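Morning F.,

Quick status update on the modeling queue. The single chain you submitted on Monday has been processed. Sequence for confirmation:
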Amino acid sequence: MVTRLLLKTPITPNQISTIGVLISLLGAWAFVAAPRCPWLYLAGALAIQFRLLCNLFDGLVAVEGGRKSAYGALYNEVPDRIEDSVFLAGFGYAAGFLWLGLTAALLAAVTAYVRALGGTLGFPQDFRGPMAKQQRMAALTLGAIAACVEALWWGSAWAALVVLILINVGAAFTIVRRVLGIARMLKAVE
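Structure tokens below.
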């Protein structure tokens, strides 16, 4: 239904991707401000969901609406890296552990890089987790909700720290898993 509504407008998939980046910047700002106003954790969680919807609808408008562009591949990947990074860095700042948020952002980018590397080597792209984009964003959403509840009831921020640790460990494991998968495929074609 939403796709049909979008197709009745002149909006392009690239514009939808750009809107996703803007939403992510607002969501990251909400996380940064959340220690002063814990309800903003919920705004950040909502922004994550809207960002994911933009990621969904840009592809649907491109494919179903025949609105692909020469730059579509760039708009499909680059905004995702920006969105992941700003959300994770903002959440790290809110948790009081910016370095963990920045590390999570780096690991998120490397998971995507390894996936794309497999594709450039002629193999199917590996979207496995445990901390692929969807799992990271689900963990971050749940973490933001938990951080809001915790901050309002107890005035602490342990949930945010735990979620950041889980995302970092899970993303590192995902990278290793994907690299080993590529190595097995390379060995098989030797």
